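quick one, 258 residues, struct below
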Amino acid sequence: MKKIIFLFLFLLILSGYIYLNLNKEKQNNLPNRDITKQEVQSFVPVNYRVVNKNNWSNNIYIEKLVINDDYFYVLPLLPEVNPLEGSDTIKILLLRYDKEKNNYYKVDEYSGEGNMSLKIIGSSDIDNNGVNELFISFNENWGGSGTAHYVKVFKIEKNSIKEIFSINDTISRIYLYDTPKRIMGASFIWGEGEGHFGCHYWNINEYRYDDEDGFYLYNTSRTKVKYDMGDEYQIDYKNCFPFPTDLYNFFENERMIR
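---
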């Protein structure tokens, strides 16, 4: 009798194991699909909005990733309220597709500094694990003349979105995205007797990526001449160079100066 009961339990467990594996294999063989505009909007909370790439296009900043044949989307969001009137900061959502239920759901959410001017400026697999890291820039201003400029690097996994590197300056900085493993940051030096706007020397910080240490400060240098601040205020800029938006032009300009 005991042998019969044992055999029955064994067959029951075996059949359950086979069923689960067949069901898992069937689920894995189900097709993926892209997220729809309606689904994207369903994840946008009150007082937030998606980020348009420019004022003349409906294209938004959203990044699609494939991890182990599963579809994921990274969706950055900005506060809807005027940054100077609210206290909300940016959100970055990680969405995943459920093949069995045929819908997307939120896996993780990042909230951090920043409340304006968000952009995805790069995507590259810098650690060679098969999944791209994301380079995202944004600004922060709660009033006054000072604006903090950020560049953050995010690592995406199946169940999380993690910030792995960040550079910022509380006064003013222009970031130049070069190669995936090299980030350049430029911050002006507010010299004695110099106004907020005008000509300034700049500190140039170069960050590089190492497989063991991640991003680190590789080199710091000061420009040979003064540059403008790259803003809209044309104040006393006749006596200095315009700050270039192209990294290679910048270094070529510095190299040619004796």
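The longest helix spans residues 2-28.
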